[in-house]
Amino acid sequence: MKSSELFLKLQKRMEQYKSKVKPDNDCFYENDTSIQSIVSKYNLESFNEIMNSSYEEVDDEVNEEELKDLIHRIDNYFSLYAPDDEKFKEFIKIISIYLVFIAKKPLHPPGIRFSNGTTVYEKDDYYYCTGKKVFINDELSLCKYCIARCE
Ligand code: SF4
Fold first, then answer.
1. Using a 6 Å cutoff on CB, does residue 73 contact ligand 1?
2. This prediction's pTM
3. pLDDT exceeds 80 at position 124
4. Structural domain total, the chain
């Protein structure tokens, strides 16, 4: 499948959240640097990109095995931590697929600071994650498909 086709499919699947997601950042406090707030802002940013952009990148071929495996890993994560939240799982799945295969941005937002002190940042057009070398060893870790480089 071409990445342009995948993008259109994601856009279509995201339609269902249009009435539920506020299109601006007004619902967040400017100075709230909690992980939850930073992740929510990043999700909202990705949501707006998906809903309001047209596909303009190089039309890559999507690796369907990797796509399937990423979905499997997200399903596994939700089965462990939020088994009853189907709507939210679908939302996060769309965002994650978008970040990995279309936007080529990290799955966690630059600027985030995890509880173990590691972080994600951007430098010279590349993304780095200081926690990747640890988190990637978790069973079915999503880090496998994240664009952020180990630091
Ligand atoms: S490498 Fe893993 S922990 Fe780091 S941003 Fe990507 S998904 Fe998150």
1. no
2. 0.93
3. yes
4. 1
